[in-house]
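Input chain follows. Return structure tokens only.
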Amino acid sequence: MSRVKYKVKQIDWDLIPNFDNRASVEFDDYMKIKSGVFQKDLGVSKLIDLVKNRNEWYEVCEGYINGYSLWNAYQEGNIGERTFKGASISTGDILIDEDNQEWLLTDQDFELVA
């Protein structure tokens, strides 16, 4: 089994308008993406739709992480060495594989953002 390079795509708070306003729609959408509450209430497909609609908030980090699988890349990105400059990978983040497919980390699994 060979290792795969995954790019990491994370929400950049500076790209979210009204982020400091906790009552704003934008902040509410951010919390839905990052908290996992949204996907439990309405399902993963609604979460993926929200991520697509808020795609302009995401930025691909410089560098990449290696892994044998998405979950292995997640573990490497959190506890191992990584070449990207970003926080640990968490719910709401996206890994981009070598075929440029985007995989959203939910609170349960990685889901393809088609």
